[in-house]
Amino acid sequence: MAGRFAPRSAPVSPARGAAVPRARGLTRRWTPPEGPYDLGLVLGPLRRGPGDPTFRAGADGTVRRACLTPDGPGTLLVGRSGGDVAAEAWGPGAAWLLDQLPELLGAADDPDAFTPRHRVLAEARRRRPGLRLCRTGLVLESLIPSVLEQKVTTVEAYRAWRQLVLRYGEPAPGPAGEGLHVMPDARTWALIPSWEWHKAGVDSKRSATVLRAVRVARRMEEAAGMEPERAAARLELIPGIGPWTAAEVVQRANGAPDAVTVGDLHLPGIVGHALADDRHADDAAMLELLAPYEGQRHRAVRLVLLSGRVPARRAPRMEIRNIARL
């Protein structure tokens, strides 16, 4: 039944030459609410690029995540099993990950609270009906990569995240952790030398913001238990964290259905193009278009992005820099 953990058995030393069985973790099954459910859509926003060392999606639909939980490192493997989601977890954080599993998978989300008022949104929901908003309950794992994404291309940000996690994180526990790394803890982030940030392509403004955040890591993590507005306000107390970054975090850590990412270079034009055929929309125009969906504006944006109605790119792409070579 959902919520029960499989007991650990005492380790048995294999005979010489015998095949070593895969180490078992703690297990849990969870039954999603009735209706369509797409595991890839639910967990997709947690992936920071194709080379993210903390996240792997398998061809069979399974997802592996390496997390730094309040109880320590943990690896989570989730996949569909009939109508259920089957999960297995390893490491000191295994029990915490399984306790949080339903919320991670969108149990607290209410897709029926959203009523599409535009054909693009109605069609996107019809084509991708299994969308639910995840809630990780972990702030720094979303905050740090979001800071790295400030004012740079996603290619640069993903590269920096990958390099820093691989260099300063630790291998993820358990057999499902093979090839994955758990991100560094707050103390390790704080001790990364300035030249290593530079080698990863992270300028001093972004690295200083990360350092300010990890020095009050406990206060940051408390935001995961707050209402999204209060959580965003808590995050924005840190110099260098503004509405853009705070929204990106509470969308993931708090499962906030109304958190709109403002200050993004491309998003207003995408929303404007999809909902009003206005590829030159700014933040004010985007918020006006999203006003009918107040309370569910983040979900509306997710559906816009899933619709595929992205304006043709005419302006030059943002230049990809590599400050490590400067």
Automatic annotation (TrEMBL):
**One GO term describing the cellular component:** cytoplasm
Instruction: Give the keywords, sorted.
Output: DNA damage, DNA repair
Q: GO molecular function, one example?
A: alkylated DNA binding
Q: Which GO terms describe its biological process?
A: base-excision repair, AP site formation; DNA alkylation repair
Q: Where is this region: Disordered?
A: 1-31
In this chain, composition skew of type Low complexity spans 1-24
Which superkingdom heads the taxonomic lineage of this protein's source? Bacteria
What name appears for this protein in its UniProt entry?
Answer: DNA-3-methyladenine glycosylase 2 family protein
